[in-house]
Specification:
Blueprint (H helix, E strand, L loop, with lengths): L7 H18 L3 H7 L4 H10 L19 H13 L6 H15 L2 H13 L4 E4 L15 E5 L2 E12 L6 E7 L12 E7 L5 E6 L10 E12 L3 E2 L5 H37 L1 E2 L2 E2 L4 H29 L5 H25 L10 H9 L9 H11 L3
Parallel strand pairs: 1-4
Antiparallel strand pairs: 2-3, 3-7, 4-5, 5-8, 6-7, 9-10
Helix pairs in contact: 1-4, 4-7, 5-7, 7-8, 7-9, 7-10, 8-9, 9-10, 9-11
């Protein structure tokens, strides 16, 4: 079906990203996976291209675009090549919206220029050992001491945590009330060079092996009060505000992964022969690819509608939950079927489909598990 989401500017951006990926990422991607992250200079290259600053306002050194469509293009082109930009997604899709909406003018002037150039990479630290999706149960604390907060605690599963220069840390600045466990949370933008800040284990994951995921710990880390993001005690409210965009970002990459899987499988079955015939000539192959293509088209339509809604300021948390739930489930089914069409070679890491398969599993977990999303959707249905 004809797609109307993108205009000429988006397609010119796509051509640049595709060329960059083919020249700068694909040839060395295996090295990134072995290291567990891209080299630090890679992000400076993205900054030089203007990719990190697309949505950063022009007065802070960015491109001044407000549309999510440019981030969607990056997701699609990375999936098309079977690669990832490491911590890029967290940097631009998760952290930037917080800085833009809740940062003071002084903070924006201080942080956004290096954010756009790649000189300052960012991450966000919410999840703690033992709390999972229960953010209200976090135990990391920040006690006000004069003109500093004293930060103590630990975080886990922090994407981009190894290379980050500044991390948005969610901490409890006052005790939770008996009637509102969500009260008393605040967001501190912590300089990772601070004394007492430590990066623990770089976690070994099933997939997403080019994206650094780490444990962090804070021991009497002194954070200047001017690095408090927004107002004290409103952290949970801020986190909720950005969940829709975060979940749409995951849905977009999931749809793109499923679309890439179909294309990888289509090409493979046309080249591979069994019993003297190409695998593509068997009816089962045709039917499986037809099923997958149909699901991908449905996911694409939903993603496109939600991107338009986000750009218009109309994407609701329930809409985003529907989109993420559907697209991640489609991704799981489609990638699995496409790997099956590769036979034994689909299980070999030298084939992109194997990487897509390993990377796909986490999308039904992070950014809100499928079970949490179903709860949100059911509540919106008033059942």
């Amino acid at each position: 079906m004809r797609r109307t989401l993108f205009n000429e500017d988006h397609e010119a951006f796509r051509a640049m990203i595709r060329s960059f990926v083919e020249a700068e990422v694909v040839p060395v991607y295996g090295e990134w996976e072995d290291a567990g992250h891209p080299p630090r200079d890679f992000y400076r290259k993205l900054g030089e291209l203007g990719v990190l600053g697309v949505q950063v306002p022009e007065e802070y050194g960015g491109g001044g675009e407000t549309s999510f469509k440019y981030q969607a293009v990056v997701s699609e082109e990375c999936a098309r090549a079977g690669v990832s930009f490491g911590g890029y997604g967290v940097h631009v899709n998760l952290v930037l919206p917080y800085l833009l909406k809740y940062g003071s003018e002084e903070q924006k002037k201080r942080w956004l220029p290096p954010f756009a150039s790649g000189e300052m990479m960012t991450a966000i630290a919410m999840t703690e050992p033992g709390t999972g999706s229960d953010l209200a149960g976090m135990r990391t604390t920040a006690r006000l001491d004069g003109d500093h907060y004293v930060l103590n605690g630990a975080k886990t599963f922090i994407t981009g945590g190894v290379l980050a220069d500044r991390v948005l840390v969610v901490a409890r600045t006052s005790p939770a009330g008996p009637e509102n466990r969500r009260a008393g949370l605040s967001i501190l933008a912590v300089d990772t060079k601070s004394e007492g800040y430590a990066v623990g284990r770089k976690l070994e994951k099933i997939g997403l092996r080019s994206s650094d995921t780490a444990e962090l710990s804070f021991t009497d880390v002194r954070v200047p009060v001017e690095d408090l993001l927004g107002e004290e005690g409103r952290g949970f409210e801020y986190l909720t505000h950005n969940l829709a965009e975060e979940r749409l970002g995951i849905a977009t990459s999931s749809y793109a992964s499923a679309a890439a899987a179909v294309e990888f499988a289509r090409k493979y079955v046309q080249e591979r022969t069994v019993f003297g015939k190409t695998v593509s000539s068997f009816q089962n192959t045709k039917f499986v690819l037809a099923e997958c293509a149909t699901e991908v088209e449905a996911a694409r339509s939903l993603v496109d509608r939600c991107i338009e809604a986000l750009d218009a300021g109309e994407l609701t948390p329930a809409d985003a939950a529907v989109c993420k739930l559907f697209c991640t489930e489609v991704q799981g089914r489609v990638v699995d079927k496409c790997l099956q069409l590769h036979g034994g070679y689909g299980y070999m890491l030298e084939y992109p489909i194997a990487r897509l398969y390993a990377d796909a599993r986490v999308t039904r977990i992070y950014g809100g598990t499928s079970e949490v999303l179903k709860t949100i959707i059911a509540k919106d249905l008033q059942v």
